[in-house]
Write a structure and sequence with these properties.
The chain is an all-alpha fold and 182 residues long. The chain is 62% helix and 3% strand. The chain has helices spanning 3-20, 26-42, 53-71, 89-104, 108-119, 124-131, 135-156; strands spanning 160-161, 167-169. It has a two-stranded antiparallel ribbon with strand order 1-2. It is elongated. The N and C termini lie far apart (96 Å).
């Protein structure tokens, strides 16, 4: 009896049990066991030089299982005619018109952080360099500015958010330089 036969006889029952605990279908266990044996067989004489055959078999089984689970992830086919979520474009435009006014009501430091990062597309690291700050200070400053902007939007435009942070409702507010009388 060669070393592969011996290692397989010693470890196959434990491997099979381990795989059964992780796979729903018995045929999947059988398939993986067969694949594992073929991989071990593919090692040829090198298998006999493996110091811990059990550890090798379990490592290969774990990797094969991970590969199989990645391939079998359940997915749902979506119909081609599934409509994308529609937003009230007028409401979105009106809320966007409120942003410059709310932004102008923030401190110059907060305005700069939001304009450069959120509106201008700078990364936080680029913002830190431009503002002469270390990265953690820049991150904190941007987070505070975003929070102040959110608070100002909530107060001035009476924006209400749902549990996921999406805008539910708001009160329209005239842009800067316009009043309700215009």
């Amino acid at each position: 009896m060669n070393c592969l036969d011996e290692a397989w006889k010693q470890n196959a029952p434990e491997l099979r049990s381990w795989l059964r605990q992780r796979l729903r279908q018995p045929q999947d266990v059988d398939d993986l066991m067969q694949d594992l044996f073929i991989k071990a067989l593919g090692q040829g004489n090198k298998f006999c030089s493996i110091e811990n055959a059990r550890a090798w078999l379990f490592a290969v089984a774990r990797n094969a299982l991970a590969d199989q689970l990645k391939m079998k992830r359940e997915s749902v086919e979506l119909p081609d005619d599934l409509a994308a979520e529609q937003h009230d474009q007028d409401a979105v435009d009106q809320l966007a018109a409120c942003l410059p006014r709310v932004l102008s009501e923030l401190s110059p430091t907060d305005q700069e952080a939001i304009r450069l990062c959120d509106l201008g597309g700078l990364s936080q690291a680029q913002y830190a360099e431009k503002a002469g700050l270390n990265l953690s200070t820049a991150k904190s400053r941007l987070q505070r500015a975003r929070q102040k902007m959110r608070e100002q939007m909530t107060q001035a435009c009476q924006v209400r958010f749902d549990g996921q942070g999406h805008v539910q409702d708001f009160v329209r507010r005239p842009p800067i330089g316009k009043t309700d009388e215009n």
